[in-house]
Automatic annotation (TrEMBL):
PANTHER family: AMINODEOXYFUTALOSINE SYNTHASE, FO SYNTHASE (COFH). InterPro entries: Aldolase_TIM, CofH/MnqC-like_C, F420, FO_synthase_su2, MqnE, rSAM, rSAM_sf. SUPFAM superfamilies: Radical SAM enzymes (SSF102114). Pathway: Quinol/quinone metabolism; menaquinone biosynthesis. It catalyses: 3-[(1-carboxyvinyl)-oxy]benzoate + S-adenosyl-L-methionine + H2O = 6-amino-6-deoxyfutalosine + hydrogencarbonate + L-methionine + H(+). GO terms for molecular function: 4 iron, 4 sulfur cluster binding; 7,8-didemethyl-8-hydroxy-5-deazariboflavin synthase activity; aminodeoxyfutalosine synthase activity; iron ion binding. [4Fe-4S] cluster binds at residues 72, 76, 79. Binds 1 [4Fe-4S] cluster. The cluster is coordinated with 3 cysteines and an exchangeable S-adenosyl-L-methionine. This is Aminodeoxyfutalosine synthase. It comes from Paenibacillus silvestris. Keywords: 4Fe-4S, Iron, Iron-sulfur, Menaquinone biosynthesis, Metal-binding, S-adenosyl-L-methionine, Transferase. S-adenosyl-L-methionine binds at residues 78, 184. Residues 58-291 form the Radical SAM core domain.
């Protein structure tokens, strides 16, 4: 779908007026912004919205990424992390091995475990429940953010339980929130072309809907920069916006640019910085009911992350410790940052650094 305008300056002014008065942007508005080459005007509008919501603050969390297994039955075209059982580099940690890894890298200021893994068909649902339970028993004060909506759908299939019952079982074991992964682009054309055979768009949304109905706050992502159209990006945002209208359960939106080391997607180069900044800004403008937009330094790098704070981003993610999934696909950023490095990153962009917990409760203002 192409937006046709005879006066782009007037069109931009109309959108700016909508933003000024807090009016919701349409599909056509979003497409116009993507087609526009006036990046600074788009950034100024996004910065205005973000300032209205968050002032000069940029948030971060001291967190640690964990990966129970990289064995996966899926073959997503963009993934370099997954392995088949028995393939070189394939692994599955026992709960005790996982706890040993955490003990080796843990520091007392970590407030969140961010857990991702493959859809391992050789493990029962009880394995994942036991890992969460043992982790929570060992570190009761650390929030567990684990299992994308695609993983919850996978657990539902292998256990025979409903999404709601899967979520309740994991919550009883210690789960507090879902990460936003597995969304990719929420259109079936994209998912078919990119061999995303895990949860469908509607299933992904329904898992989060169920989580929100149980009182759980969750996260949302978009993986962009491959074969999707700009209209698909905007429609993805609008689907999230509609669910947020319904449940008010999302904490933050994370637009993730795809990394180029793909086995099957035919990707030759990284997403341009222009597109990354524009997507962060448009996300801020379209998702008027999301409190935060995250700049994921792992995918866009630290310098562009600093710029993003004037293009609508209000979150710099966290310390991470050792990120594996994006780096397996070719990310050039650090595998993690220290607290002091994150504070410097934020303050160096002229913003106020705020350490938070998973739910954006403020821990310390720097």
């Amino acid at each position: 779908m192409s937006v046709i305008t005879t006066d782009p300056i007037k069109r931009m002014a109309e959108i700016a007026d909508k933003v000024e008065h807090g009016q919701r942007l349409s599909l056509e508005d979003g497409l116009f912004l993507y087609e526009s080459d006036d990046l600074l005007s788009i950034g100024q509008m996004a910065n205005k919205v973000n300032t209205r919501l968050n002032g000069n603050k940029v948030y971060f969390v001291q967190n640690m990424s964990l990966y129970f297994t990289n064995v996966c039955e899926e073959h997503c075209a963009f993934c370099h992390f997954r392995r088949d059982e028995g393939e070189e580099g394939a692994y599955t940690l026992t709960p005790s091995q996982m706890l040993d890894y955490v003990a080796e890298h843990f520091n007392p200021e970590i407030r969140e475990f961010h857990i991702s893994q493959g859809h391992n068909p050789h493990l029962p649902f009880e394995y994942y429940v036991d890992c969460i339970r043992q982790l929570k028993n060992a570190y009761p004060d650390v929030t567990i953010k684990a299992h994308t909506a695609a993983e919850i759908e996978f657990f539902s299939r292998i256990s025979g339980l409903s999404y709601r019952d899967v979520l309740k079982t994991l919550m009883d074991a210690g789960l507090s929130t879902l990460p936003g992964g597995g969304a990719e682009i929420l259109t079936e054309r994209y998912r078919s072309k990119m061999k995303v055979e895990k949860a469908s768009s509607e299933e992904w949304l329904d898992v989060h809907r169920n989580a929100h109905m149980l009182g759980m706050k969750t996260h949302a992502t978009m993986l962009y920069g491959s074969i999707e159209t700009k209209e698909e990006r905007i429609r993805h945002m609008m689907l999230l916006r509609e669910l947020q209208d319904e449940t008010n359960g999302f904490l933050v939106f994370i637009p993730n640019s795809i990394q180029p080391a793909s086995k099957n997607a035919g990707l030759k180069r990284r997403v341009p910085a222009w597109d990354e900044l524009k997507t962060i800004a448009i996300s801020r403008l379209m998702l008027d009911n999301f409190p935060h937009i995250k700049a994921y330094f792992i995918n866009i790098g630290t310098k562009l992350t600093q710029l993003s704070f004037t293009f609508g981003a209000s979150d710099a993610h966290g310390t991470i410790v050792k990120e594996k999934i994006s780096h397996a696909a070719g990310a050039l950023s650090p595998e993690g940052l220290t607290r002091d490095e994150l504070v410097w990153l934020i303050q160096g962009a002229g913003r106020t650094a705020v350490e938070r917990d998973t739910f954006y409760n403020e821990i310390k203002v720097y």
